[in-house]
């Protein structure tokens, strides 16, 4: 068996980890200078926390964790008192009897109550009629009971049949070549078909791997609300898992780097997140990024103005494609979705939406003059844009983009997306404001805003632009060649001191051929090699070789330590 | 619904993360000075990689990941051409017919071959006998076919019954109060009972969360053997998951910190791992640790000497309890396990095994004089102990402990365990040499040695001993009070510069009451607060308040930046 890993997952080598950490550490550093603090949540959550939060498609892509064998043994404690199919029949039978008794007692009570009333002669006729009704109900119950007992007999036989079937299996499969495996497939297939995948899954899995960091964060905020100081600024950099079809740049296990603030509606935060993106990308040398900004309220306002408020999603999905399919394409798609030609006519200004951010803001103000919500959105955009203009960015460009929609259902205010001009790869970051994230867990009126970095894409971009020079691989600085026991012991004394000073150093473990040991140093890109042979041991010194330049010279222990600590 | 997390898992707050990182970073730093490099592996592996590697108990504790709905829809492509139970009957029927035809053709062929041979009259008698045999076989096949078709009829009826049962369900459940959920339990329970949990699980789950870092590491080494420079020194600090019963200090999600070298049998590495433990624990202020050392070969040698080589496990398990149940308890347990009194008599020296490491080595040498393997073990122990004595340790004590066994089946040479004298908590680290870790994945003769740190226990120890002083929480150094839009804008200019210098700083997002903002600073333990009100704005300066001392004074922007960057 050739070992492998599940599709869509990755091993990371030391070099890859060094590069990933280079990105992680810079993001982390900037998060912290902006006042964010880290939290971590478990890899798996209760299924109820995750399911239903990402739509049907998302639910399907969530990795569910199977309950353990113990769990199945105790699937249903009441039911499990009965050990096999036959006894399980009794379980039903007992239920029938119990339910029937309850119903009989109920009707008995009602009839006797009614009889009493009739005796008292107060409202005779109605009560007699009611008595008739109850008595016929009683008869119906009798009938149902008979039918059910009959059906119980069927169940009994059915159980017998299944038992026989299982007994036959061992005999049949020799001839039929139907093995347990196939039989198991049939049973599982029919279970999933009869009860539905969702229901069945719920039964055999109560935990699931986290699908993103946002829902676990919302759960965290609600669960720990009494320990949290609001506004709560948290960042989180952890793996998430999605059972998506793996593609280039799309994995089943990948990291998300999120920063969110909850508990404030301040527009200053919308300003700060633009600065934060700018700071991170500048720091990792990825200048020339474009931070696109939009506002949900502006999109709602436009939909309102053109009289297509009920078609907000269709409208924004189509508008989002403007740079791909052009004005005509967008028009056709909108028409197909039932947006009127008259409405689309009103969108004309957006199709040639050009100029500076200020010019765009002016156009939007004119266009949205009839929509209060729309104008609110414009005001918010203006606040962010003007303040960013005055504060200045280090390397990024902020661009108002009314076609930007992203997770529209989710965002209620600002919407961000970051792209780089240098590599064609889609967005390398995104986020926005959401007004009721924690509402799903019962904590209302907590507004939040957050952004995320697309680590894997940023990695690919830095790789392509050769921007990883500064990513340091934790390689030993010096390798001590192993010439035998005495020599090694001498080396370990020096190594001990080097390590105390934090200098990565190691002894080649075996007394192998010199060439093999030198190759090892080369392959691991260790810049210095120390040779302590018989002669050096006698002279109480060592030979230091620079692996890059090839030069070597003799020095004593103290000199060596001094040189290595430079 | 009150949100919660699965039992045995944890959320980590910023403070907890700071403390955990304090430990992680120190371990990492020492790993790297010793020449180890990081790798990372995916959270889940193919089940085949993990299952069967940890014994039956381990298999049970592995978290399995459920295949997706898509998978179940395509459970068996051949079988799934048939859409329901009835059609699945035909599937079997077709199989029967096909198999029967094959068998008939087979016997036809044999009989005609035999007939030909008889015609040729070469070996008449034997062939006639053979013909008889084949013909009776043919008759037997006819009989089996009849029986199976009969059984197919049963299957047909059985399928009909099941269909009826499912149709009845909807009707019955109103009266019976047997819901889908209960019915699903019954089906699942019976599937697991009929086909076994292991088989069923294998069918519905092909991936599993990693249970430790050692098996994924072995898989990594084999999978990437052509890219690896041997000896390969890797460290790995990642979460692992076990469906264990949660207890104090035992979690279902926890981190392991492992360092291993594979590809060398050098005893210098056994020396180095002692140094590594010493370096890490000294670094985090946990002095007074005891590094216990033993050797599997010594244990085997003792078992050999007392003539209980076949009872090595029983013998070591009992011996391991010496400090808990005393010599008498150990003797009784050994007797119960069938180790003779005569053999136990020979163990007497071990029951009072005292003195310095050198004295113990001397005693072992005497005791094991009859066992080559045992003496080898003593030699290895001697090498490690003597070199450590000569090189010296920073704070730990190395102690030879012949009762130490740990994962005995696994280790083949050195065995380590670390304890602290200051807190009663069991071992805080352990490891040893294994000679054929990668053999399970087909790469033979790769010797390895590795150790592990028990992060959660170390955390508890540092907490109890109050050794976390140096764990730095990434708190903002300075909070700017929000007095309104103009004032905030002024502050953001200063904040921008502070952040560029790497000074954590933030603006309170809302223009809330001063008291609320000051409380926020206190709660988040932010040491400095800057107030820029109307007056300061006019004077182009700000008021800096030291939250600890309470003192405050006015300064200009440059002074502020200078003070904060100290």
Write a brief caption for the model:
Chain A is α+β, with helices and mostly antiparallel strands and 566 residues long. Chain A has helices spanning 14-33, 47-50, 55-61, 69-73, 85-119, 124-176, 180-195, 197-204, 214-223, 268-283, 296-305, 312-319, 322-336, 341-346, 348-351, 357-367, 372-391, 455-464, 485-500, 514-523, 534-539, 557-564, and strands at 37-38, 44-46, 64-65, 207-209, 232-241, 253-262, 289-295, 397-400, 414-420, 429-434, 448-453, 478-480, 505-507, 528-531, 542-546, 552-555. Chain A is built from 22 helices and 16 strands.
Mean pLDDT of chain A: 83
**Assembly classification:** homodimer
Number of strands of chain A: 16
Q: Biggest interface pair, residues each?
A: A-B, 151 and 151 residues
- Gyration radius of chain A, to the nearest Å? 36 Å
Tell me the distance between the termini of chain A. 48 Å
Largest sheet of chain A: 8 strands, mixed
Poorly predicted ranges of chain A: 84-90, 166-178
Q: SS-based structural class of chain A?
A: alpha+beta
**What best-fitting shape of chain A do the alpha-carbon axes yield?**
extended
Percent range for helical residues of chain A? 40-55%
SS element count, helices of chain A? 22
- Beta content of chain A comes to 5-15%
Strand order of the largest sheet of chain A: 1-5-6-11-10-9-7-8
Task: Describe what this molecule looks like in 3D.
Chain A has 22 helices and 16 strands. Chain A is α+β, with helices and mostly antiparallel strands and 566 residues long. In chain A, helix 11 packs antiparallel against helix 17 (372-391), helix 12 packs antiparallel against helix 13 and helix 16 (357-367) runs antiparallel to helix 17 (372-391). The longest helix of chain A is centred in the first third of the chain and has 53 residues, at 124-176. In chain A, 39% of the residues are buried. The interface between A and B is large, with 151 and 151 residues.
């Amino acid at each position: 068996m050739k070992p492998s890993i599940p599709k869509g997952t990755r091993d990371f080598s030391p070099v890859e980890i060094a590069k990933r950490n280079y990105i992680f550490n810079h993001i982390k550093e900037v998060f912290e200078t902006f006042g964010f603090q880290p939290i971590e949540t478990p890899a798996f959550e209760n299924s109820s926390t995750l399911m239903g939060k990402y739509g049907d498609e998302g639910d399907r892509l969530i990795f569910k964790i199977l309950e353990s064998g113990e769990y199945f043994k105790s699937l249903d404690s009441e039911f499990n008192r009965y050990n096999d199919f036959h006894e399980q029949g009794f379980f039903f039978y007992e239920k029938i009897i119990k339910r029937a008794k309850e119903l009989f007692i109920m009707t008995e009570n009602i009839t006797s109550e009614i009889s009493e009333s009739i005796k008292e002669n107060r409202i005779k006729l109605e009560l007699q009629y009611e008595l008739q009704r109850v008595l016929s109900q009683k008869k119906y119950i009798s009938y149902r009971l008979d039918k059910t007992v009959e059906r119980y007999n069927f169940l009994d036989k059915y159980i017998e049949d299944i038992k026989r079937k299982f007994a036959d299996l061992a005999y049949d499969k020799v001839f039929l070549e139907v093995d347990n495996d196939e039989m198991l497939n049939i049973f599982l297939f029919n279970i999933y078909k009869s009860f539905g995948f969702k229901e069945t899954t719920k039964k055999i899995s109560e935990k699931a791997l986290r699908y993103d960091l946002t829902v676990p964060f919302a759960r965290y905020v609600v669960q720990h609300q009494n320990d949290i100081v609001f506004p709560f600024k948290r960042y989180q950099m952890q793996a998430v898992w999605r059972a998506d079809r793996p593609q280039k740049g799309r994995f089943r296990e990948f990291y998300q780097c999120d920063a969110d603030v909850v508990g404030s509606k301040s527009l200053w935060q919308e300003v700060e997140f633009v600065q934060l993106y700018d700071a991170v990308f500048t720091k990792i040398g990825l200048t020339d990024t474009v931070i696109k900004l939009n506002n949900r309220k502006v999109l709602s306002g436009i939909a309102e103005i053109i009289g297509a408020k009920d078609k907000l999603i269709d409208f924004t999905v189509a508008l989002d494609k403007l740079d791909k399919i052009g004005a005509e394409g967008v028009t056709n798609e909108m028409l197909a979705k039932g947006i009127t030609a008259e409405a689309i006519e009103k969108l004309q200004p957006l199709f040639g939406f050009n100029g500076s951010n200020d010019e765009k803001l002016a156009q939007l103000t004119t266009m949205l003059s009839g929509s209060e919500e729309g104008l609110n959105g414009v005001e918010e955009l203006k606040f962010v844009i003007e303040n960013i203009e005055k504060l200045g960015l280090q390397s990024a460009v902020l661009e108002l983009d009314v076609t930007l929609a992203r997770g529209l259902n989710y965002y209620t205010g600002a919407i961000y997306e970051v792209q780089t001009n240098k590599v064609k790869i889609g967005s390398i970051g995104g986020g926005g404001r959401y007004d009721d994230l924690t509402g799903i867990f019962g904590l209302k009126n907590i507004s939040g805003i957050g952004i995320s970095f697309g680590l894997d894409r940023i990695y690919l971009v830095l790789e392509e632009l050769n921007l990883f020079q500064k990513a340091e691989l934790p390689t030993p600085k010096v390798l001590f060649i192993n010439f035998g026991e005495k020599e090694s012991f001498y080396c370990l004394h020096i190594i001990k001191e080097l390590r105390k000073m934090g200098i990565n150093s190691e002894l080649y473990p075996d007394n192998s051929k010199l060439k093999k040991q030198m190759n090892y140093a080369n392959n691991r890109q260790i810049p210095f090699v120390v040779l302590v042979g018989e002669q050096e041991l006698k002279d109480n010194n060592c030979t230091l070789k620079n692996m890059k330049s090839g030069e070597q010279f003799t020095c004593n222990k103290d000199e060596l330590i001094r040189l290595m600590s430079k």
